[in-house]
Structure formats: structure tokens, C-alpha cells
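Why do we bother with holo predictions? Because pocket geometry can differ from the apo form. Keep that in mind while you read this record for inosinic acid.
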Amino acid sequence: MKKLVFATNNQHKTEEIRAALEGKYEVLNLEDIGCLVDIPETADTFEGNATLKSSYVVEHFNLDCFADDSGLEVEALNNEPGVYSARYSGSRDSLDNINMVLEKLEGNPNRKARFKTVISLMQDGRNHIFEGVINGTIRTALSGSKGFGYDPIFQPDGYEITFAEMDMAQKNKISHRAIALKKMLDFLKGI
Ligand code: IMP
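The structure, written out:
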């Protein structure tokens, strides 16, 4: 069976993809291939960072690979925090990062935002890009305790609750990550 690396250290994410591609690809993660370095994410776009990660594995391990990069884009903040989502406030603390967004948006009536995921799949020397977007608004205060990152302030369009108030199963059906992944899986399965 053809090997396919998922450039992640997250075991849960790996199992999910492994199950989805069972019988078609042998899915390995960074630990499985002995890639212990923290691959630098120094690009200024999601696509750039995802491609940095997938290309690193292709170059150093000579295996096909895909990688994802995600973040929050707030319209009134010129699409910040974007690629800086994980450390917008200077720290990796989600609450600090949420407060930074809320402060910058204080009094601003434009609350439009979106979560975006970009996947780079390097297969047979070609880079295939898949994108997932979910539009929504930024609440003025936190609500809910599920999920992670900016979930407590993000209300997806068509819902009255935030991502942090949704069951994981419900969020995973509609999220930016789910949309991008489905596109890649359909491609890999030849749908
Ligand atoms: P990653 O590229 O998936 O690691 O995401 C980078 C950062 O974007 C995370 O550390 C979060 O701050 C933010 N982010 C990405 N996806 C989500 C999400 O589904 N909910 C909340 N925050 C997210």
C-alpha cells in the first residue's frame, strides 16, 4: 500500500485520517517516520505554511505528505490574527489571544470573521491545495467551554451558539478543517 504522511504530532487527528483512508493509503504521522524537528512555519499565508511542512517531509523523507494550517481571519482587523492565530497576543494562551481580538474590536460594529484551513498535499512531486472556510461573527463576550482557541467568541453563520457551545461532533461536521479535509479525501479516493 502507498504510504502517505500527515505532518502532525496529533495522534487523534492521525487516527481520523487513517480510518478515512483505510485500505487505500498507509497513513503515518511525524512520530511514525521519526521526524522529531519542529518544522518552521515562517510563511505569511496559510498555504505557505502548510506547504513548508509538507515539502519538508518530501525533501527529508522522500514520502508523499500532506499538512494543514488554520486560523481566524477578522474582517475589521485586516484579516488578523490569520497565520498568527496561535500566538496573537505574544503568548500561546487562548484567553490572552481572545482578549486581544475583543480589545481590538471594541466598539466596532463590523464583527465579521471566518475560520480558514488550508491543506497542502504533496503527491508525486505536485502540490495540491485544498481550502475550507466557515463564516461567522465575533461575539462581544465569551460563551461556552468546549473546543479550543477562539471557539468561545466565534458564532458560525446560521447558528445562535458559539463553536464552544457546540458538541464536538456538530462542530466537526461544519468546521473549516472538516471542509478542507473532505475535499482532500474526495480527491484521494478519486471521487
Ligand atoms: P492550527 O494551524 O490548526 O494549529 O491552528 C492555529 C491556531 O488557529 C490555533 O492555535 C487556534 O488559535 C486557531 N484555530 C484554528 N482552528 C481553530 C478552531 O477550530 N477553533 C478555534 N481556534 C482555531
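Residues 46-61 form the longest helix (16 residues).
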